[in-house]
Design brief:
It is built from two helices and five strands; from the N terminus they run E-E-H-E-E-E-H. By secondary structure, it is α+β, with helices and mostly antiparallel strands.
Length: 71
């Protein structure tokens, strides 16, 4: 399902990888939820997101209309 999150992976302090929002598409669920460039995504639906692939997997488990917590 379309979520509208635009995100990337970057190296954080200590060399660990983190997922960061680079944008949220206009009119998207991500934008309505208040996600904005610079936000870090630590988990999606309780699934840790240490890298971009983990984020993709967590989002792929969702169905259109699902409510999900993003930390």
């Amino acid at each position: 399902p379309w979520h509208g999150i635009i995100y990337a992976e970057r190296r954080a302090a200590g060399g660990r990888t983190e997922v960061v929002v680079t944008g949220a598409e206009a009119g998207s669920p991500a934008r309505r939820a208040g996600l904005a460039a610079g936000d870090r995504i630590l988990a999606i639906g309780g699934q840790p997101t240490p890298d971009r692939i983990a984020g993709l997997r967590a989002l792929a488990r969702l169905e259109a209309g699902d409510a999900v917590e993003i930390r």
